[in-house]
Amino acid sequence: AQEGLLLDASGMVVSGIMSNIYWLKAGVLYTPSLLLSGVAGMQRAKILQACVAQQHPLRIGAFSVAALKQAEWVCISNSLMGMVPVAVFEEKKWDTVGLVQSWLHRLHLT
User: Is the dihedral of CA 15, 43, 36, 63 positive or negative?
Assistant: First the structure.
């Protein structure tokens, strides 16, 4: 499946067209803030609550596309598809389905 990436007026990552977006780098889960735009969906709430409950490092804020490209893995989510690993973004490729599944299992999300 294909998904587009939404950026705000200053070029910061907001979300996917139909999804929220998350990425892991150095053990920290990153996701854009919804302060200026985006949708606080049920799947996003579930993921953030699991991070808090399991004391998993989490950063919510304004992040550039460059930060996204430095991720160990990237996922998108919504209530219909759940959490889905991203395989390719521009020239960046990830082969991380197993890593994502392991992370979801540790947070009791599978």
Answer: negative
Residue 74 near residue 65 (C-beta atoms within 8 A): no
Entry pTM: 0.89
Q: What is the DSSP letter of 35?
A: S
Place of tokens 């004391």: 55
SS3 state of residue 32: strand
* Secondary structure, 3-state, 43-104: HHHHHHHHHHHCCCCEEEECCEHHHHHCCCEEEEEECCCEEEECCEECCEECCCHHHHHHHH
- Of 56, 49, 109, 55, give the one whose Cα is nearest residue 84: 109
14-28 residue pLDDT tens: 999 999 999 999 999
